[in-house]
Amino acid sequence: VDDDQTVVIADVRNHRIIQWKNGDTTNGQRVAGGNGAGNGLHRLNGPTDVLIDKETDSLIISDRGNGRVVRWSRRSSTTQGEILIDKIACWGLAMDEQRYLYVSDHGNDEVRRYQLGEKNGTLVTGGNGQGDGLNQFDWPRYLFVDRDHSVYVSDYSNHRVMKWNKGAKEGIVVAGGQGAGSALTQLSYPYGIFVDTLGTLYVADSWNHRVMRWTQGAKQGTVVVGGHGEGAGANQFNGSIDLSFDRHGNLYVTDRSNYRVQ
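Structure tokens predicted for NHL repeat-containing protein (262 residues):
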């Protein structure tokens, strides 16, 4: 969500990035891809994440099906992107205040940090094979980096969210980690995450069709929205897979199988 409340969405099955201006629920605007699946620079293939780089007024996109991270200018004349990183099983993206780019690599179960323009990056979390150890992941999905450069990772198939402090050799379980389930101590295939300035963690708990909030050090979370079963009602989700806040504190949730954002 941009500062003017424009919502930018990775439309994975349509192989495009689309944006919706605040208050306009009928006319989305394609801003990257949308030319069918493919590996040309004018195409995307199953994009899974997008972030706004305000410094260059561009979009950085996890082009998962092509195994690359690409950048598209937000200028209206833009017809193709440029490759920033390739040959990576990318999923989630994050950028810190120094404009280092973090990418989750679900093929190697790790997260790498890149200076823009750099091709190889530095390993910051994981990289110890697939597993449920504190130094491992099982399909890392989305990322969040806080002001202390701690990296939060939704560890999808381990049903937990991990926090890796800067320079740490292993992570800390900050949500879930009690197996898949719907208890307040559990998550079921977590996706999108967000951490506020107080260290409170918000998690898109996809298979439980809810968003959870975990305060710092808590042993269990609370349900913020959803949690009323799978459905299309205004108080329900059918696969809550990502979330974001705008600068006014409003929460936006990607409701996958209802093909909507709430």
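The chain is about 0% helix and 45% strand.
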